[in-house]
Each structure stands twice: as structure tokens, then as C-alpha cells.
């Protein structure tokens, strides 16, 4: 089993103090910084884009895990890599037949690449691209907002994807995003996830370190 990594989502951070917020994550033991890019079209919310990623890059040495919830991500992936993204993940639902080419574009630009599926997309939709991914992201809420409830059917997808990943013989990370807390982290990890995104559970916790440690160790 791969190392468990905690990737706090800055969607729940104070956007007006982002430099300090990512420093706080680093000081409290986060493994990655999960950056939720939303365009108001692919999802019903708007967050930030290239400039924010570029500026965050100057405030942390943690890997930046950029989750693109945007239409036509193929137009922007190279610029996100240039801005400082270490991992770029793109939605199957935003790419469909261009998914493979978009993943290859991310790799060619020098970052790790990943495919994301929404709660209503089956694992079979991305099965053929699994071997070329560095990471697969399973959405356990419908993307757009933090603080939603974990959809339990996501656990079956994690199990199926962990099996597919094992079949490739490659070290591919399996990430989960949405509604994760120290309380349900153990079940989620047992189902096969090794990269755990958490927004509200980390930023709204009285003790950030305890929340991150809880997600990692529970
Ligand atoms: C949802 C985002 C998530 C979100 C998770 O669209 O992709 O990364 O920040 O937030 P929580 O952990 O609060 O569900
Ligand atoms: Zn996300």
C-alpha cells in the first residue's frame, strides 16, 4: 500500500490571506496543497485561476495538486504546469474523448497527471486511461462546494479502482475528494484511497494539526 497523504483543500481557506494559509498547512503537516479551480461553467461556483497558483507557489514547497473544474481544460493545462502545479487533474466529464490527449499534454509539460470522475460517472469511463495516470481522483460529492456530505457509494468505486491500479503494476495514487473528516477517513482508506482531500474538516478545525493527523492516522 502506498503512503497515506493528506491534501487539504484551500477552497475552505481565507482567500484574502492565502500565503499565510498555505504556510499554516505546511507547518501543520499537510503533504500536498489541493487547489480547486472552478470556472462557473463546469461547476456552479467560481474560485481562482492561474495567478493564484503562481502566487501560492512562492509561499510553499509542498506539491500543488490542481483540481481543474473547468470546461475545455486542454486549453489551460500547460499554463497551470508553468504556474507551478506539480499535479494537474482533469474531469472525464469535461474532456470525454480528449481525456487521453489532455493527460498526455500534462505529462509532456512536466507535471503528474490525473483523471477525475464525478459521483454519477462509472469507473468504466476512465478504465482505459488508468495506466497513463499518476493519480485517479474519485469525487465523493458533486463538485462545486465544500462542506457537503460524503456519498457512501464512492467506496465501491475506490475498491474497483484500487484493483485496476494493482493490475497495472504501477504506483498510481488514488485520491478521494469531498466530505472527508477524521471520523470517516479509516473506512475510506480501507477502501483503497491513499490521497485524502479535506477542506472544511481541516480549515474549520480548532486544531489544524489534530485534524490532519486524524485523517492520516485514524
Ligand atoms: C469540491 C472540491 C473539494 C472541496 C472539498 O468541489 O473539489 O476539494 O473543497 O471540501 P470538503 O472537504 O469540505 O468536502
Ligand atoms: Zn477538489
The main sheet comes to: 8 strands, parallel
User: What is the number of helical segments per DSSP (H or I, 4+ residues)?
Assistant: 9
Global morphology: globular
Domain tally: 1
Structural class: alpha/beta
Poorly predicted tracts of residues: none
CATH superfamily: Aldolase class I
Mean pLDDT: 98
Helix fraction, binned, reads: 25-40%
The bound ligands are: D-xylitol-5-phosphate, zinc ion
In CATH, what is the class?
Alpha Beta
The CATH level-2 architecture is identified as: Alpha-Beta Barrel
CATH topology: TIM Barrel
- For the biggest β-sheet, the strand order reads 1-8-7-6-5-4-3-2
Compressed to H and E, one letter per element, the order equals EHEHEHEHHEEHEHEHH
Strand content: 15-25%
Beta strand count: 8
The rounded Rg comes to 16 Å
Descriptive notes:
Helix content is about 35%, strand content about 20%. The protein has an eight-stranded parallel β-sheet with strand order 1-8-7-6-5-4-3-2. The protein has a single domain (about 5-215), classed as TIM Barrel. The chain has nine helices and eight strands. It starts with a strand and ends with a helix. With about 220 residues, it is α/β, with parallel strands linked by helices. Helix 2 (about 50-55) links the parallel strand 2 and strand 3. Zinc ion (ZN) binds near residues 9 and 34.
Amino acid at each position: 500500500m502506498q503512503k497515506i497523504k493528506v491534501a487539504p483543500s484551500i477552497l475552505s481557506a481565507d482567500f484574502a490571506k492565502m500565503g499565510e494559509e498555505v504556510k499554516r498547512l505546511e507547518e501543520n503537516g499537510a503533504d500536498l496543497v489541493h487547489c480547486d479551480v472552478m470556472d462557473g461553467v463546469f461547476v456552479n461556483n467560481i474560485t481562482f485561476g492561474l495567478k493564484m497558483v503562481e502566487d501560492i507557489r512562492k509561499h510553499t514547497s509542498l506539491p500543488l495538486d490542481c483540481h481543474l473544474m473547468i470546461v475545455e481544460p486542454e486549453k489551460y493545462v500547460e499554463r497551470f504546469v508553468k504556474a507551478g502545479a506539480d499535479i494537474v487533474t482533469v474531469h472525464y466529464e469535461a474532456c470525454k474523448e480528449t481525456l487521453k490527449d489532455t493527460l498526455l499534454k500534462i505529462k509532456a509539460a512536466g507535471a503528474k497527471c490525473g483523471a477525475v470522475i464525478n459521483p454519477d460517472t462509472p469507473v468504466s469511463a476512465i478504465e482505459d486511461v488508468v495506466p497513463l495516470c499518476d493519480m485517479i481522483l474519485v469525487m465523493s460529492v458533486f463538485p462545486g462546494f465544500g462542506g457537503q456530505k460524503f456519498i457512501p457509494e464512492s467506496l465501491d468505486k475506490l475498491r474497483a479502482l484500487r484493483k485496476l491500479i494493482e493490475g497495472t503494476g504501477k504506483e498510481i495514487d488514488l485520491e478521494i475528494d469531498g466530505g472527508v473528516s477524521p471520523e470517516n477517513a479509516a473506512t475510506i482508506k480501507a477502501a483503497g484511497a491513499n490521497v485524502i482531500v479535506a477542506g472544511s474538516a481541516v480549515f474549520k478545525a480548532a486544531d489544524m494539526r489534530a485534524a490532519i493527523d486524524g485523517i492520516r492516522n485514524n
